[in-house]
């Protein structure tokens, strides 16, 4: 089962890249929650996906570049960079570490620590 956790996580990311938020939600349990280091605490998965949907309104394309995945039992830890091509022609990247917990074959909990890299010329 642990090798198989990569499959639904990667599918979840592909659906986010395609802005298929209802499809991403189908890969989660009904009670799935997300914690992010934004100070909001735990949020229902559907609410977090609604927030993500508004985040990508000015994005032409996005791609998750997974740099590391480690799994143990019903848990998977991942490091990735979210690469964004924005509507104004600029690009951005968001670095994150993410913990996925599964209940059966579905994502039940995500904990995400996000770090937006400062602009290289900013002082």
What descriptive keywords fit this protein?
single chain; alpha+beta; 6 strands; 123 residues; six-stranded mixed sheet; Nuclear Transport Factor 2, Chain: A
- Widest β-sheet, arrangement of strands: 2-1-6-5-4-3
Report the mean per-residue pLDDT as an integer.
91
CATH architecture: Roll
Order of helices and strands: HHEEHEEEE
Inertia-based shape: globular
Over all CA atoms, what is the radius of gyration? 14 Å
How many structural domains? Answer: 1
Please report the first level of CATH classification, the CATH class: Alpha Beta
- Indicate the CATH topology: Nuclear Transport Factor 2, Chain: A
Count of DSSP H/I helices: 3
Share of helical residues: 10-25%
Low-pLDDT regions: none
The end-to-end span amounts to 47 Å
Question: How many extended strands?
Answer: 6
Note the main sheet: 6 strands, mixed
What would you note in describing this structure?
By secondary structure, the chain is α+β, with helices and mostly antiparallel strands. It has a single domain, classed as Nuclear Transport Factor 2, Chain: A. Helices cover 24% and strands 50% of the residues. It has three helices and six strands. It has a six-stranded mixed sheet with strand order 2-1-6-5-4-3. Strand 4 and strand 5 form a beta hairpin. The longest helix is centred in the N-terminal third of the chain and has 12 residues.
């Amino acid at each position: 089962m642990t090798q198989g956790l990569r499959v639904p996580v990667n599918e979840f990311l592909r659906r986010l890249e395609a802005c298929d938020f209802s499809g991403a939600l189908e890969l989660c349990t009904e009670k799935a929650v997300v914690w992010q280091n934004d100070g909001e605490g735990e949020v229902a998965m559907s609410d977090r996906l609604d927030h993500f949907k508004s985040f990508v309104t000015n994005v032409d394309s996005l791609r998750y570049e997974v740099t590391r995945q480690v799994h143990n039992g019903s848990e998977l830890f991942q490091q990735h960079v979210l690469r964004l091509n924005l509507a104004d022609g600029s690009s951005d990247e968001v670095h994150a570490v993410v913990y996925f917990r599964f209940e059966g074959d579905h994502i039940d909990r995500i904990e995400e620590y996000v770090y937006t890299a400062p602009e290289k010329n900013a002082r």
